Amino acid sequence: MTPGQEPQRGDAITGADTADVAPRLGWRFPRTFWFANGAELFERAAFYGMFIALSLYLTRAVGFTDVEAGYVAGAFSGVIYLLPMFLGAMADAIGFRRALMLAFALLTAGYATLGSASFLPAGTASCKWTAVIALVLVVLGGAIVKPVISATVAKCSDAAHRARAFSIFYGVVNIGAFTGKSIAAPLRGHLGLEYINFYAATMAFCALVLVALYYQDVRSEGISRPAREVFAGLLKVFKHGRFLALILIVAGFWAIQGQLYASMPKYILRLQGEGAKPEWLANINPAVVVLLVVPITHLVRRFRAENSIAIGLFIIPFSALAIAVSPVLERWTGNEVNFTDQFSLHPITVMVVIGIALQGLAECFLSPKFLEYASNQAPKGEEGLYLGYQHLTTFFAWLFGFILSGYLLDAYCPDPSTLSAEVRMQYDAAIAGNSPLPTVFAHAHYIWYVFAGIGFAAFAAILIFKYVTRAMDRARTADALTR
Fold first, then answer.
1. Among 7-16, 252-261, 310-319, 374-383, whose mean pLDDT is lowest?
2. At what angle do helices 241-257 and 392-412 cross, to 10 degrees?
3. CA-to-CA distance for 196 and 133, rounded, in angstroms?
4. 18, 28, 118, 404 — which has fewest CB within 10 A?
5. Taking residues 256-285, what's their average pLDDT?
6. Considering the chain, what is the average pLDDT of its residues?
7. Residue 408 and residue 410: Cα distance in Å, rounded?
8. Taking 70 as the threshold, does the pLDDT of residue 366 lie above it?
9. CA torsion sign, 364 to 359 to 81 to 94?
10. CA distance 178 to 289
11. What CA–CA distances, in Å, run from 14 to 18, 20, 21, 24?
């Protein structure tokens, strides 16, 4: 009996008519499916709780400068999307259950070690290296979890129920991400940044216990290829100019979206003070996606994939531009935008909310169509190979976006702990509402002009890409007809 099919008492389906009866769809799946999703829920809650505070933690608790933190967080967030291609074969070899237990043990140790780095003197080599080693453990664990959980979902469902299985899986991912970011704010405010990492370690340990006690191994071959084949595939993709160009263009979109984690938390806290809740603001993006992705996908169902992507790339720079013009709103309204007698927000918060909502809207147009477009650009017969490497766009985007963020924060929105005593006094008075911010923060919004420029460049690039590739295709077709 396939998952989701439940025969009704008294039904009799003979061999003659089974071919004419469509399988009854349901929501019943093997126990391992549900336990795998439970483990994914814990893992996502751990990861996003840590990740929303990572850049902040690396500067405040570990002692990295903004630039150094940009490089460390960029390498971490980029590699965690690249490494699963290479570790899937290991999971095939040792079995899914052992692979998941290893992964969650690494994650538990990594998050706990990252939190423990705060007990060492900030800025010292021992503190910094402890944090880096901890992030390496998290990368290794996360890179194992990614392919194994998704493969478990696939192997615990048949073709008829796969869409339902993955809808549950993606719902769990979003619930976990929302929970992790929501919990991070009170932990930071009441206990300290290090406790976000200890919370993440607890979530990872809960996943480890769940897998150890309840996860039953499924057939574990076929989720990856040997490393030499992965390298050969990467080389082939990099030699295909059209596909590589598409990856780099769309990376402009994700570089801006990644600022939810790279720039936004520090930007909000440094300009508004510790009472701000950047972790909660970041949840606006998935909320908008959950609400709008289905109707927008239906709306653009007949659009050419590149046109829907172009709409997303057109919207995304305005998300950064909205945040960039927050000083204009502040000049009009002062330090508060009053919506009712009981509810008001800082002008920066208002524009950040608008910017993040625009990010979610743009994502609804781009994400569902990107895979379709990527497959259309692949050589005939190699669609699967190219789709397997489409996440390189996130690798490039987050590596570049986090590193650039570090330089921009250092230049326009510096760490208050690096200010001179006199400037720090003025800064503290400004956060208390008793004076304007020091002049070193006068151009903090320039950060978002830079990312708006990247977005507009990506939009222009996709238009050029469409024109050039269509011209190439027409020329190839005309050449084939003349032969």
1. 7-16
2. 40
3. 18
4. 18
5. 95
6. 87
7. 5
8. yes
9. negative
10. 12
11. 6, 11, 10, 16
Say if CB 416 and CB 409 are below 8 A apart: no
Taken as a whole, the chain contains a residue count of: 483
Please say if the pLDDT value at position 227 is more than 70: no
User: According to the model, what pLDDT value does residue 222 have?
Assistant: 56
Is residue 23 classed as helix, strand or coil in its secondary structure? coil
CATH 1.20.1250.20-classified regions of the chain: 27-224, 233-483
Is the Cβ–Cβ distance between 320 and 448 less than 8 Å?
yes
Task: Indicate the pairing of strand 344-345 with strand 337-338.
Answer: antiparallel
Identify the burial level of 375 via C-beta atoms within 10 angstroms of its C-beta, where 0-12 means exposed, 13-18 middle and 19 or more buried.
Answer: middle
Quick one: CA dihedral 173, 176, 182, 188, positive or negative?
negative
The torsion defined by the Cα of 152, 78, 286 and 323, in degrees rounded to 10, comes to 180
The CATH label, of 1.10.10.10, 1.20.1250.20, 3.40.50.300, 3.40.50.1440, for the domain at 233-483 is 1.20.1250.20
* Closest to 472 (Cα-Cα) out of 124, 172, 240, 192: 240
Buried/exposed code over 180-190 (b: 16+ C-beta within 10 A; e: otherwise): bbbbbbebbee
Rg (CA), the chain: 24
Give the pLDDT confidence of 127-138 residue by residue, as tens digits: 999 999 999 999
User: Is there a contact between 172 and 44 (Cβ–Cβ < 8 Å)?
Assistant: yes
Q: Tell me, which fold does domain 27-224 have in CATH? A: Growth Hormone; Chain: A; (1.20.1250)
Among 198, 186, 361, smallest CA distance to 277 is for 186
CB burial of 163-176 (b: ≥16 within 10 Å; e: otherwise) equals: ebbeebbeebbbbb
Determine the Cα–Cα distance for residues 183 and 384; give it in Å rounded to an integer.
38
